[in-house]
Inverse folding.
């Protein structure tokens, strides 16, 4: 089975800024693939090159075995796209908007059915301008789904949405996959990538820095848990690294973030180390290791404010 | 099981959503319909028919003054007053009167009339003529040939007859350019154009649909203004309505093409507004909307004549006032069509979709 999406050695520079710098990706049929990275990592540029909206400076793109140069119209019939920030016409109703998009495709879903599937049937005759953020985003995804695509591209589909709207959107993506669809999405939410994606590519400064299933990636940390703590005065890095089972240390706000195998083992040692230095513990918190922690361990920066 | 939605061709969907969008935009409705009507009403009343002003003239006080005053008052175009010598000279110098009728001091006892005036003032010459006629007639002159006056009030020759076609042309220019320019720049700024090209939509469908929806409004817009001119000011369409409609459609599309070209690259509403004004301003001034461009020097007239608004205004006046048919406006129709086609093709070629 050939890859549904593949690109090799993709490069795109904007006036000296390397937005995408030699990227290779391949997405299998039926897979949900996540492009993960901080703002400015080149996610949007990458996805727009794959969508045929931006042309790369160099590199090859193949979608469903077709290329943008030779088969643009054919490809457009078979993929669905939700851009990061499209403002659909505010004066049109939800149904009018969806029917308009449906008219562009030779075959596709019935707008009425799709609105029902996406819980937008109550907003059938509401103006787009009156919709909430979550409803607008669902409509944007509806416009992407209305041509019954084989591949769905979603650029930051849940950015700025409330938790409930986010869950609704995840549900839509999962139902699309159950019908055999392939999804490529970008996000800077680790939780989203972990929940939705079969495989994740972490990108930073236009480079691929890690690739794998969320579980594999987290395993790369060689640590299941993360401790964040601050003390007064701050401990020396050596003292923190000396703790048994410490797989890595990164500066975190005024204190440290430590990746460890076992909390039961590390926490008493940590408290001991603080006491030995004559310092006072100001705060301590722990959580299970996430993709976010992997990003921190790979780049030394946090995702959201990187 | 609900009925399946009927899917119409994309060009129809695009045109109908575009039309609905416009219908729901109240401000746009005002600028297309309200504004030109208010303008026509205001200008129509400002320049409505009224008798010509009488020209003030001074009669220098003297033995003949009262007799002359009585004779001059019989003239319908003069407003004579008796003043003393110094007063009268000051009034003439300051332009308060156009003509001074002096007593002849040198040849005492004679009835010689002396007219004093500035020959560069146009009303001075006519006042001199009128005053002389009045005084000569009073003195007993008999006209050799009988003459009769016919005042021109004919429909088709008044200022409002000149103005209404000009406003119609100006409106077609404004709405044609804005409807394309604003919509395109707005859709580009909101990334709607980018979203549309991410579908299998044909790019020409999008632009042709804008033209199609424009056609509907064009017809409504023309009907409203023409009907208004007819009912309120009695400006009749002397030519054929069909020819007028054809002309408006060709003219309207020429401006849509220019609007498309103007907005083909602009990234913001501000940029497109500036460009639009830059293009429309010379035509507002030169193309004979409010006054005839015949007053411009002969050397620039050939350029003014091929400006799209001049072509449209000339042809509109020919059809509305002079009942011209297709052959008489073929030149204007042809050049307007060239403007529309050339700008549309270039606009489409350099169009920025993202």
């Amino acid at each position: 089975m050939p890859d549904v999406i593949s690109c090799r050695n993709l490069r795109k520079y904007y006036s000296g800024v390397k937005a995408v710098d030699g990227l290779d990706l391949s997405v299998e049929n039926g897979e949900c693939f996540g492009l993960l990275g901080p703002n400015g990592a080149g996610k949007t540029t990458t996805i727009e090159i794959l969508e045929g909206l931006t042309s790369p400076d160099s590199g090859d793109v193949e979608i469903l075995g077709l290329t943008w140069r030779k088969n643009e119209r054919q490809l457009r019939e078979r993929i669905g796209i939700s851009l990061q920030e499209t403002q659909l016409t505010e004066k049109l109703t939800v149904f009018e908007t969806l029917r308009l998009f449906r008219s562009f495709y030779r075959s596709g879903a019935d707008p009425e059915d799709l609105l029902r599937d996406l819980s937008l049937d109550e907003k059938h005759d509401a103006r787009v301008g009156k919709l909430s953020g979550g409803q607008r985003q669902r409509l944007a995804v509806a416009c992407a789904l209305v041509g019954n695509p084989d591949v769905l591209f979603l650029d930051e589909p849940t950015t700025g949405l409330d938790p409930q709207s986010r869950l609704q959107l995840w549900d839509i993506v999962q139902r699309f996959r159950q019908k055999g669809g392939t999804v490529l999405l970008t996000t800077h939410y680790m939780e989203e990538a972990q929940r939705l994606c079969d495989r994740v590519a972490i990108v930073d400064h236009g480079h691929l820095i890690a690739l794998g299933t969320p579980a594999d990636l987290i395993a790369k940390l060689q640590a299941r848990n993360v401790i964040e703590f601050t003390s007064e005065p701050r401990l020396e890095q050596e003292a923190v690294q000396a703790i048994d089972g410490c797989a890595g240390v990164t500066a975190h706000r005024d204190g440290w973030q430590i990746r460890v195998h076992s909390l039961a083992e590390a926490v008493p040692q940590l408290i001991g180390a603080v006491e030995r230095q004559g310092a006072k513990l100001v705060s301590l918190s722990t959580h299970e290791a996430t993709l976010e922690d992997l990003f921190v361990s790979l780049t030394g920066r946090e995702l959201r404010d990187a | 099981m609900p009925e399946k939605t009927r899917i119409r061709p994309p060009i129809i969907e695009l045109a109908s959503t575009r039309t609905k969008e416009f219908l729901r935009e109240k401000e746009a409705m005002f600028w297309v319909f309200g504004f030109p009507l208010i303008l026509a009403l205001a200008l129509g009343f400002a320049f409505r028919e009224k008798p010509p002003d009488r020209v003030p003239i001074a009669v220098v006080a003297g033995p003949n003054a009262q007799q002359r005053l009585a004779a001059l008052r019989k003239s319908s175009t003069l407003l004579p007053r008796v003043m003393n010598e110094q007063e009268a000279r000051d009034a003439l110098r300051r332009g308060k009167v156009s003509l001074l009728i002096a007593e002849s001091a040198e040849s005492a006892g004679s009835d010689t009339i002396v007219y004093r005036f500035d020959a560069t003032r146009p009303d001075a010459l006519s006042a001199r003529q009128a005053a002389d006629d009045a005084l000569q007639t009073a003195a007993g002159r008999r006209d050799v040939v009988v003459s009769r006056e016919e005042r021109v009030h004919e429909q088709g020759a008044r200022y409002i007859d000149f103005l209404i076609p000009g406003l119609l042309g100006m409106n077609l220019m404004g709405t044609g350019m804005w409807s394309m320019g604003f919509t395109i720049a707005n859709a580009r700024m909101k990334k709607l154009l980018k979203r549309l090209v991410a579908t299998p939509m044909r790019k020409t469908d999008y632009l042709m649909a804008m033209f199609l929806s424009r056609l509907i409004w064009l017809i409504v817009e023309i009907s409203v203004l023409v009907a208004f001119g007819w009912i309120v000011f009695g400006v009749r369409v002397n030519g054929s309505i069909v020819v007028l409609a054809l002309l408006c459609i060709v003219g309207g599309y020429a401006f849509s093409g220019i609007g498309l070209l103007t907005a083909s690259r602009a990234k913001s509403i501000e940029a497109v507004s500036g460009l639009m004004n830059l293009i429309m301003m010379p035509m507002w001034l030169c193309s004979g909307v409010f006054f005839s461009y015949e007053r411009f020097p002969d050397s620039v007239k050939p350029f003014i004549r091929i400006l799209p608004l001049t072509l449209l205004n000339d042809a509109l006046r020919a059809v509305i006032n002079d009942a011209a048919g297709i052959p008489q406006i073929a030149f204007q129709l042809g050049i307007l069509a060239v403007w529309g086609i050339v700008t549309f093709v270039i606009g489409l070629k350099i169009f920025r979709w993202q």
